[in-house]
Write a structure and sequence with these properties.
DNA-binding, 7 helices, alpha+beta, 35% strand, two-stranded antiparallel ribbon, elongated, 27% helix, homodimer
DNA sequence: ATCATTATTATGTATATACATATTATGTCA
DNA sequence: TGACATAATATGTATATACATAATAATGAT
């Protein structure tokens, strides 16, 4: 870096990351204060501050007022991954996307669903099941329950051209969500739909969404066990 | 908000999030420019900028120079989850953590491992296998390969008191990682170790770590299928 | 009309300054 | 010694200003 070059917080952040990675700043160690670093990098304190804050958000640093900034002892680094719409996920991989509506009716939701959404024990909800295909092959089976009180207009939707997921994304935003991943064995019906053998493994993603505490939907999405969910950090 | 109250970017961000959630600003719509918003919220443009940037990072807004800021059409919201050390994960849930070293020796790594790490086809690597327990019950089976060139000092470690994961975390930081989730069926050995039936499902997390392009380690961690990985957003 | 050039504009970033706030360190009194 | 008020301090945030940059819109030449 030349002395005259304008210092960007990106460069400073990178340099700090390097120091942490190469243990110039050891885990647990207290690093210099913002003003000192600002002098060292010959930039404004605000610039150092931004670099430090971003690193802290990434879990590499831990900051506390008055106490100062130290290198995280247990770098509980956060992995960030985007949860795309299935169609995009498939198209990004170069596959041809299709989807098939399996069923779509209003019925009494099972207790397991209403309980997790914090709703009354017995409740009529919209139950939509569909299959997403990539290049004609089953990719994801989606089993969804929608709270009609939260999204009444969904009642008249046929889902012939647009999948329930995309419909909800464009018609009902959410402010809060909980996502759960786990593995399971395919039951007979699921195996049939996904085109795999019964008792093969399936990768399950469950999602609960809310707007301002009000429950919107519960989805269970299952992939064949061969599916890989990849994330970088 | 009173007119005299100092406006924080938090409040502004929250207000904007509300407008998006309640569709005052509809998906795909162009929202006012920073200067206009700064006047509306009677604050500095920098403050508006910070709020907007944070929302954009959250995937709720999409910003482009000159083009302006618009509400994301497909809120590909990013889920952020922390990847804690197993011991912390267990202790956070209130369990008692233990771990058992199953094997620890230098041997020729299988091609599947060297290839994914971008190493020479035949290579001697450290192979460590261990089991993490919660309240005495198998929680995670860890099968790890370590590149001795990257971390030579690990050769003399016995892992009698500290798990390989924690050793690496405190002795060898990484700058890059790739994480893969999927489901599989337990093989005989894995089932035996995890205390589950053969052909039950297992939830697999694989992790590859690097420092500055140099491969450090490949780990395959398997949980019984009943394990839940939860994340909020 | 088409293409390359230039102007315009919204966001992106850097800076100095000022004040806010959380937390630790210090000092005082009982 | 201990409890409690007070000072000191590092980070957190707000602001005005200035300039950088990317992308579009306008312009002009061919």
């Amino acid at each position: 870096m030349t002395a005259t070059a304008r210092k960007s917080f990106h460069a400073i952040k990178a340099e700090m990351a390097r120091r942490i990675a190469e243990r110039v700043w050891a885990p647990g160690a207290l690093i210099p204060g913002e003003e000192v670093l600002a002098v060292e990098f010959s930039c404004a304190r605000a610039t150092v501050n931004r670099a430090l804050q971003e690193l802290a958000r990434g879990g590499v640093l831990v900051r506390k007022r008055k106490a100062g900034t130290r290198v995280a002892l247990h770098p509980m680094r956060e992995a960030r991954f985007v949860i795309p719409i299935v169609r995009q996920e498939i198209e990004n991989k170069g596959g041809i996307y299709q989807f098939r509506l399996l069923s779509n009716r209003v019925e009494k939701a099972p207790l397991a669903v209403t309980k997790r959404l914090g709703l009354a024990k017995t409740k009529e909800m919209l139950h939509v099941r569909c299959l997403h295909l990539s290049d004609g092959k089953p990719y994801q089976y989606e089993d969804r329950w929608v709270n009609l009180d939260a999204v009444p207009s969904i009642r008249n939707e046929t889902f012939e051209t647009v999948s329930p997921n995309e419909w909800l994304v464009t018609h009902s935003p959410f402010s809060q969500a909980e996502i759960i991943f786990h593995a399971d064995l395919a039951d007979i019906e699921e195996a049939e739909i996904l085109g795999i053998d019964e008792k093969e493994s399936v990768f399950i993603i469950e999602r609960l969404t809310f707007v301002l505490q009000k429950p919107i939907t519960f989805v269970r999405m299952s992939h064949p066990g061969s599916h890989r969910m990849v994330t970088q950090l």
